[in-house]
């Protein structure tokens, strides 16, 4: 049995300790916002925040997370009110929506660690988008950074830090005017 806090609630998973966090979240907790993509941690669709750091939940066994604090897309904010979620909608980033939750979690972590990220930091995000929304993603990141700067006194949800590993890169480029 593994105990952790998920989106502010204490959870005890009675699952095999080798169960990937992704499946514990989706199947046992019915938190289906975290998506299964590649199953190897390369695409970033399953990105969540564990103890303030982004992780690909398909690669982390729940047995290694005893006492951890996990934040999923469902726990990032109430009513999709996080600046990244607001910017994502304002820039109309969504196409298929599959990469969306993982990207939003990774961007929230990036902006928490680096409120004014460099193009290199943005390009190093490990998440992939197959729909070609990269220019809109870049605009959403800039919009969210500006919004988060405007509320500088506010503490972001999840106390996030930069990703644990860079993995694959999305190569988000700044749009041309």
UniProtKB/TrEMBL annotation:
SUPFAM superfamilies hit by this protein: 2Fe-2S ferredoxin-like (SSF54292), CO dehydrogenase ISP C-domain like (SSF47741)
Where is the region Disordered? Answer: 154-177
Keywords in alphabetical order: 2Fe-2S, Iron, Iron-sulfur, Metal-binding, Oxidoreductase
Q: Which GO terms describe its molecular function?
A: 2 iron, 2 sulfur cluster binding; metal ion binding; oxidoreductase activity
* Name of this protein: (2Fe-2S)-binding protein
What InterPro entries has UniProt attached to this entry?
Answer: 2Fe-2S-bd, 2Fe-2S-bd_dom_sf, 2Fe-2S_ferredoxin-like_sf, 2Fe-2S_ferredoxin-type, 2Fe2S_fd_BS, Beta-grasp_dom_sf, Diverse_Oxidoreductases
A UniProt-annotated Pfam family = Fer2_2
Q: Where is the 2Fe-2S ferredoxin-type domain?
A: 1-76
């Amino acid at each position: 049995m593994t105990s952790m806090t998920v989106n502010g609630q204490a959870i005890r998973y009675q699952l095999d300790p080798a169960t990937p966090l992704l499946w514990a979240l989706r199947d046992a907790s019915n938190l289906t916002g975290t998506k299964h993509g590649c199953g190897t941690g390369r695409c970033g669709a399953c990105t969540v925040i564990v103890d303030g750091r982004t992780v690909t939940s398909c690669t982390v066994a729940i047995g290694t997370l005893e006492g951890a604090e996990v934040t999923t897309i469902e726990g990032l904010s109430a009513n999709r009110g996080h600046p990244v979620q607001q910017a994502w909608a304002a820039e109309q980033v969504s196409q298929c929506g599959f990469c969306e939750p993982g990207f939003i979690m990774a961007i929230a972590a990036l902006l928490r660690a680096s409120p004014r990220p460099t193009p290199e930091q943005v390009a190093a995000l490990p998440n992939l988008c197959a729909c070609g929304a990269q220019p809109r993603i870049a605009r959403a990141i800039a919009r969210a950074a500006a919004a988060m700067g405007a509320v500088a006194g506010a503490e972001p949800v999840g106390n996030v830090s930069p990703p644990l590993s860079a993995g694959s890169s999305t190569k988000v480029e700044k749009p041309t005017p």
